[in-house]
Design goal:
Radius of gyration: 21 Å
Order of helices and strands: HHHHHHHH
Number of helices: 8
Largest sheet: none
Helix content: 40-55%
Number of strands: 0
Oligomer: single chain
Strand content: under 5%
Structural class: mainly alpha
Distance between the termini: 57 Å
DNA sequence: AATACCAGCAACCGCGTAAGT
DNA sequence: TACTTACGCGGTTGCTGGTAT
């Protein structure tokens, strides 16, 4: 059975938004608002898009005062410390960073910040455990196809209930990152 | 110059839940 | 109270451009 689709998939365009679609959506919402119904909105303005897709486009790109890229050191620190305290609640984290969207922060975390934090953590571990092995076979196995580290070596402490070390590892890594040198 | 690989990011999917009936 | 519908969120996918071989 499964879940009923939110729209007619056959008559809905997918993939990247064209400038024309952006203009249509933006000018309509600026004039009339969303009308409290995202699903009806694309039909109203003649867009062959799913309501969800319109909502996402508006929230992440078309909305005024959206910032993209160029995360500051301060923003990095806020994201890291919030991630440690609440986990991957991206919308809550985004609410603390004006102009940033949850999607942007999520991408930034997954592609860069996680590695940055991990690199820092590794450096610190090597420093404290001088002479110990550096990268293990397991580290390599734990790397997914995109090269990001997965598995016990880097769980979110709030999604992993099995590894007691996760929480302390995160805290340790974060502290070493947030505290000024 | 061609190909393979990788990183970054935009967008989609599906679930949980709030709101409406 | 039970059911339906739409929204919001987080995880994941897949495209694109850059870099390495």
């Amino acid at each position: 059975m499964g879940r009923a689709p939110c729209c007619d998939k056959a008559n809905v365009k997918k993939g990247p938004w064209s400038p024309e679609e952006d203009t249509k959506l933006k000018s309509y919402i600026e004039q009339h608002g969303t009308g409290g119904n995202w699903i009806a909105l694309p039909q109203k303005i003649g867009l062959k898009r799913c309501g969800k897709s319109c909502r996402l486009r508006w929230l992440n790109y078309l909305r005024p005062n959206i910032k993209h890229g160029g995360f500051s050191e301060e923003e990095d620190n806020i994201i890291c410390s919030l991630y440690i305290s609440i986990g991957s609640r991206w919308s809550i984290i985004a609410a603390q960073l004006p102009g940033r969207t949850d999607n942007d922060i999520k991408n930034y975390w997954n592609t860069r910040l996680k590695k940055k934090l991990l690199g820092k953590q590794r450096k610190d571990q090597q420093h404290t455990r001088r002479g110990s092995k550096q990268i293990t076979k397991r580290d390599i196995i734990n790397q997914d196809s995109r090269g990001s580290l997965i598995g016990p070596s880097f769980h979110s402490p709030y999604t992993c209930h099995h590894h007691h070390l996760c929480r302390s590892q995160f805290k340790e890594a974060s502290l070493s990152m947030t505290t000024p040198r």
